[in-house]
Design a protein that fits this description.
Elements (H helix, E strand, L loop, with lengths): L1 H10 L1 H9 L8 E2 L1 H11 L1 H22 L4 E11 L4 E3 L2 E3 L5 E14 L1 H69 L4 H36 L8 E2 L11 H11 L1 H21 L5 E15 L2 H28 L6 H6 L4 H11 L7 E2 L3 E7 L7 H67 L5 H36 L5
Parallel strand pairs: 1-6
Antiparallel strand pairs: 2-5, 3-4, 5-7, 7-8, 7-9
Helix pairs in contact: 1-5, 2-5, 3-5, 4-5, 5-6, 5-8, 5-13, 7-12, 8-12, 9-11, 12-13
Amino acid sequence: MLALAIVCSVGVLAPAVAVAQTPSPTQGNVLTLTDALTLARRNNPVLANSVNARRTAAANVRAANGAFLPNVSSSFGGGYREGRQTFFQGQGFGSTNDQLSTDASANASLNLSLGALNDRRAVKAEQEATESDIAAAEVTVRNNVITQYLTALQAQASATLQDTLLATTTAQLQLARARLQVGSGTQLDVQRAEVADGQQRVASLRAHNTAQVEVVRLFQQIGVDPMPGTTLDPNIPAPPTIELQAVLDMAKRANPALGAFKMREESARRQVSSAKSGYYPSLSLSAGVSAFTNRFTNTNLLIDQSRSSIASSRASCIRTEEVRARLQLANNLAACEALAFTPAQEQAIRDSQGKYPFDFTRNPYSVSASLSLPLFNGFRREQQIEQAQVQQRNAQNNTRSQELRVTADVTAAYLQLNTAQQTVTLQEQNVRTARTALSLAQERYRVGAISIVDLVQARGDFERAETDRISAVYDVQRAFAALENAVGRPFR
């Protein structure tokens, strides 16, 4: 029994280091870092909101281009007028027949100015700034996902380490009991070993819970619901060798946030030109055409009015010609007798009422052009120019501030990466020393040279050293991700 306990307590150290270095995925779906980043680009809601800004920017560009196209409008209307005369100064006007009418018109206008041209260029610069904002949002989401992925991997590695340490405390408890049975140990050693084993079980339970929580947080960063049974792939490539000046040059060229500030500076410059264009003339062109049609609701009344009018004309003609005949003057009495309301005229009246509502009669069209030159508008142009120039200077200051921020962030991340890489080397040396000390303490406890307290202390030293090594390993990856985030583009 004693020999078995000693073998278990010594042999459990080797798996502790190996598992902590490379956690093995369990059964289930494996989510690689590449898969996580791909899912985040499609599903992260914050990134989706940033991408939506692309549609607004495109609409603004279309509107700016539309300033060089004519504004076209059309109208179509209908009306009804009661058949009642309107009186003015005792005179009656208008028809006594109810009337329906329709009218249509089309108009086009075009305004051309240098301000519209500069506004279009400013909007194009804003569109490019929006694209840079989207790229910056993608970099931020990428960094958040990578950081959380590494945090989840570190939590899983810590949980694996706690499981390994639990096996160690269990073996130590068995060894203490075996020594008590053979008379070389004490009941106090057994109780202390039981306390250490119980505390390690709690630590292992909490470590596994933390690992599960970090995986849930990872899916939150991705933008999808957690998928049960998913494991993470710990095989992340080591950071490549890079030079500080190279990454600084890359950041100045490719950092999307810096690019957005530069584009907004260009937009502000165009706004200044647009404000100054208020001193130049503008050209306005317009054209329009309209048409109408109408009909009376009582066609028979029109026919009766026409018949009465012709009969009145016939009677008046006859009276006139009879007078001429009595005076023995030349007359056209026969022609007057021929005046009559014919069926063809009645049909023409009915046909004329059939044009409603779409057989229009066109009014004369109109075309106009004007050239306007502003002279004085109460210093509003000067005010607009001053405001635009202030915005331009602010944009230049913002660009310079962002350049300094990028330089500082990249330099700090580069130094942090170098420190993290050096820390890993030192922590690995500490782990080797702590592992050797724990093996020696186990052997000395087996032969009764030290107490269980010394053995627990040696195990605690090894746990802290291995935990620090795990943190250092993932700190390197986090520092490299921070450097990529500061530069604004991935290196791998």
